[in-house]
Amino acid sequence: MKNKKNIYFLIPTVLLIWGIIGYKIVKSINPSQPNATTRVAIADFKPKELVVSKPYTINANYRDPFLGSIATNKKKVKRVVQKKSIVFPSVQYVGFIAPIGKKKSPVFILKIYGQQELLKKRETAQELQLVSGNQKEIVLKYKGVKKTFSIQN
Predict the structure, then answer these.
(1) Per the confidence metrics, is the pTM higher than 0.70?
(2) Is 145 a member of any domain?
(3) Considering its fold, how many domains does the chain have in total?
């Protein structure tokens, strides 16, 4: 018996809700025509004067929430390092001697100031260090500056 009482209450409620929804749909599809008798006087229009605002800047001098101190603008000063011009000694790459074994490194023949020198990789002669080399060219390091020399024929 309880279920019949609920049905008698719920059916009219559902029909009322669907009726309202249907009325809104029909009203939006067929809107009523508004009266177009009101006119606006265009001659009375006066534009407002533009007020130019002053430029502003943001003052961000507030406490840093993470550090707990007020941030200050510190300008970094660039230090200009003057590079000294290094003059390489007169060097000629004459050739190289191929190694005979697998573990041996090749020996490179150089002429430094007209004097013949035999160098392996990472060896130094007259402040010149042999960094690397192959059959066509070598790389020498003199006072921290590297330079490549090709073979002289």
Answers:
(1) no
(2) yes
(3) 1
